[in-house]
Amino acid sequence: MANVADYNYEFYNVTFPAEYVAHVEINRPEKMNAFKEIMWLNLSAIFKSLSHDPSIRSILLTGAGPRAFTAGLDVQAASSGQLSAPPTSDAARKAVGLRRHILEFQDCISSIEKCEKPVICIMHGISYGLAIDMCLSCDIRFSTETTQFSVKEVDIGLAADIGTLSRLPHSVGNHSWVKEIALSARIFGSDEALQHGLVSRVLPDKKTAVEEGLKLASLIASKSPVAVMGTKEIINYSRDRSIADGLNYTAAWNAAMLQTQDMKDAMLSGLQKRQATFSKL
After folding, report:
1. CATH code for the domain in which residue 249 is found
2. pLDDT tens sequence for the chain (281 residues)
3. Last residue of a domain, one of 221, 242, 263
4. For 54, 91, 94, 108, which has the most beta carbons within 10 A of its beta carbon?
5. Are 141 and 135 in contact (CB under 8 A)?
6. H/E/C letters for each residue in 252-269?
7. Would you give the distance in Å from CA 224 to the centre of its chain?
8. Do 104 and 75 belong to one domain?
């Protein structure tokens, strides 16, 4: 079991509700889990630690409270911090400073995608702006019947810059719909999100969604961690490349990974009709 004391980060609850499963809960419900700078940095630290934690094989990501998964960026905090230009009158130097800041925050959200362990995101209530960036970095997305989504950035004078505009077209495959919701910032519900493939499952309420997410996380955690890590890695690698490139990478990856004891144990357990157990990765 992972050590809870190793995951004591402000604005997050990290628990371990099942064997090999971590639950990361964004914990700022009084502000609808809106993000200020320390939350981005802590999110990255948590997922980088979980990625290499041998006691973790799958992760659930949720938001605390009944109102929101996250309302996105805390605009009030951002106006005096992360959106402020560096103190110089030179346009090029301002641009360099802002670019560095944007890349840093992009990396914070990308830490979810780069995590070796599969991440299941449960979105409920308000799920605006940064919520879309975050969920698209996750591997599996569930929502509830009352979840409200919005690519909100144009309403605060921005082009979404933390991942939505890059990942969403790959995730849903409908550029017209992507541009419609990104250019209008209109609110849409889970039925539309499911229709276009933004989520794979819609549950009646948050409690049910978290329970179903935990069941799936536990099921994934029961599999070979070598096989699970390889599956996530190859799917993500192949997303942005040709089929030929993906096949070649898979062959190179499995040339090493097929030598694992996990494969022998899994095959033998199937023949003997018993549950396989696998060593920590």
Report:
1. 1.10.12.10
2. 788 889 999 999 999 999 999 999 999 999 999 999 999 999 999 999 999 999 999 999 999 999 999 999 998 777 666 555 667 778 898 889 889 989 999 999 999 999 999 999 999 999 999 999 999 999 999 999 999 999 999 998 889 989 999 999 999 989 999 999 999 999 999 999 999 999 999 999 999 999 999 999 999 999 999 999 999 999 999 998 999 999 999 999 999 888 889 888 888 777 777 888 898 88
3. 221
4. 108
5. yes
6. HHHHHHCCCHHHHHHHHH
7. 21
8. yes
Contacts of 165-172 with C-beta under 8 Å, sequence gap 24+, read: 167/133, 167/136, 167/137, 168/132, 168/136, 168/198, 170/239, 170/240, 171/136, 171/197, 171/198, 172/196, 172/197, 172/198
Q: Are residues 157 and 201 in the same domain?
A: yes
The number of angstroms, rounded, from the C-alpha of 23 to the middle of its chain's C-alpha atoms is 12
Q: Quick check: 122 and 142 in contact, CB under 8 A?
A: yes
Residue with tokens 């997410």: 213
Which residue range is the domain that position 54 belongs to?
4-221
Residue 70 within a domain: yes
Q: Do residues 44 and 123 both lie within one domain?
A: yes
